[in-house]
Design a protein that fits this description.
7-stranded mixed sheet, 197 residues
């Protein structure tokens, strides 16, 4: 189980294109640090969720041949369900552009992965994110993992209650809340092919 909390400060407005593709790009000094992560969310037609996940499971190797998959989850709750959330790692924007070009030329990926799944997706969102300077991405010692570490939904609730009583956390939130544009919480379940559980 993955409990995911995402807080975003957007410098550029999200752009919407048919069929509702949204993308946000980070700006500022972190943009020049190189490595970044693309968070992708696919909103699926409810009756097509299982078909989509099975096709991805069968053909994910076609996509991972081009870039590193950090993790792939289905959403248990947190807003709209019948969606999947996945994270891809890139060295820089040039690397991402090269991967996108290679995928556009990869007929096997298009025919077995992309085309069959397009009809199953209602909407997709893509966001570029960076690790905060004091954070590193590692695989945990247990199978249960979270981006904002919680062992379970109950431990998350207990931890949030405890943090709300910590003056350091209260002060940090008070200082940063003016920069917060949106916040979203999701409980994610890793797929069988997700590298990060």
């Amino acid at each position: 189980m993955l409990a995911f909390r995402r807080s975003l400060t957007r410098a550029l407005a999200a752009t919407t294109m048919a069929p509702q593709v949204c993308s946000s790009f980070a700006t500022g000094p972190r943009q020049y640090d190189g490595t970044f992560y693309e968070f992708r969310t696919y909103y699926l037609k409810p009756s097509k969720m299982n078909e989509f996940v099975e096709n991805v499971k069968k053909n994910i190797h076609l996509r991972t041949a081009h870039s590193e998959l950090v993790g792939y989850w289905s959403v248990e709750f947190g807003g709209r369900v019948n969606k999947v959330f996945h994270i891809w790692k890139y060295d820089n924007f040039t690397h991402r552009t090269e991967v996108r070009k290679a995928l556009a030329k990869d007929k096997e990926w298009q025919e077995q992965f992309l085309i069959p799944n397009l009809a199953l997706i209602d909407k997709q969102e893509s966001e570029i994110t960076y690790l905060v300077p004091w954070c590193k991405l590692v695989k945990p010692p247990k199978e249960v993992h979270v981006l904002w570490w919680n062992e379970s939904a109950d431990s998350r609730a207990a931890g949030r209650h405890q943090s709300h009583e910590d003056p350091r956390v209260v002060a940090a939130v008070r200082e940063s809340v003016n920069f917060l544009e949106s916040q979203q919480n999701m409980l994610l379940i890793p797929t069988s092919f997700s590298p990060l559980k």
